Amino acid sequence: MDQITEIGTILEWYLSVGVDEALSDVPIDRFETSRQALARAPAPAPERPASPASAPVSTGAQGFASRPPAAARAPAPAETAAAASARELAAACDDIAALEAAIRAFEGCPLKAGALNTVIADGTFGADLMLIGEAPGADEDRLGKPFVGRAGQLLDKMLAAIGRDRARDAYIANILFWRPPANRKPDPVETAACLPFVERLIELSKPKAILLLGATPTSALLGLGDGITRTRGRWHDWRGIPAMPTLHPAYLLRQPQAKREAWHDLLAVRRRLLD
Ligand code: URA
């Protein structure tokens, strides 16, 4: 094999394992930085508050879906020292400035070491509609804001279709604050480390309704693991706030025929916000 072919083969292999961007000229041992971050986090708290999967789901009056059977529930995010630390830190934040500072200072999510930016939220804090996606991608990581790439452009059009604008009357965040390599799905340890902060973002912003974009936020916040095409389109209860799972805009870019279902969900959101 000549040298050029050899380099090409190595680059192909890098791509296949998710290494798709050069961030630095100097190699960094990410396994070591993750080990150090986890070692710095305090020991787990003895008791864990009720997981989303065990939170009661209202039925009837508000038209919420009934509690799913055990088989349809997603596995709870991993209980780790980092998750316990995140819960403690998030609970101590009484306003958005403190919460954002706590997220930026948090070292318990291994993804932070490989990210360019911490991506927290965009739009209007306190808006009556909050949207939660999965995780930052390459564009979001570069710019430090959620949903600024192609999926974000479609999301803006979806919002405009129900008369909303992220700068004015929507607040957008993700389940993770740091980009997973090669845009892979968040793993349970990463989700557990970020989730307490996401929950606190929602609690402090106090939306009237939450739109969950895709399977990842639906599983992390509602404990529903039965596939987004089954769970979308019905209201669920998240700690007293109505939450609607819908299709992720990145999925809609790949499957434009599914926009019809997403439109149905958006209309339900618009109706609820007009109530
Ligand atoms: N997809 C997401 O889920 N979140 C983003 O911020 C961008 C793309």
UniProtKB/TrEMBL annotation:
Reaction(s) this enzyme catalyzes, per UniProt: Hydrolyzes single-stranded DNA or mismatched double-stranded DNA and polynucleotides, releasing free uracil
Keywords: 4Fe-4S, DNA damage, DNA repair, Hydrolase, Iron, Iron-sulfur, Metal-binding
Biased composition (Low complexity): 65-77
Domain Uracil-DNA glycosylase-like: 120-267
The EC number(s) this enzyme carries: 3.2.2.27
SUPFAM superfamilies, A to Z: Uracil-DNA glycosylase-like (SSF52141)
Keyword RNA-binding: no
Region entry Disordered, spans: 37-77
GO terms, biological process: DNA repair
PANTHER family associated with the record: TYPE-4 URACIL-DNA GLYCOSYLASE, TYPE-5 URACIL-DNA GLYCOSYLASE
Family statement: Belongs to the uracil-DNA glycosylase (UDG) superfamily. Type 4 (UDGa) family.
Full protein name: Type-4 uracil-DNA glycosylase
Phylogenetic placement of the source organism: Bacteria, Pseudomonadati, Pseudomonadota, Alphaproteobacteria, Rhodospirillales
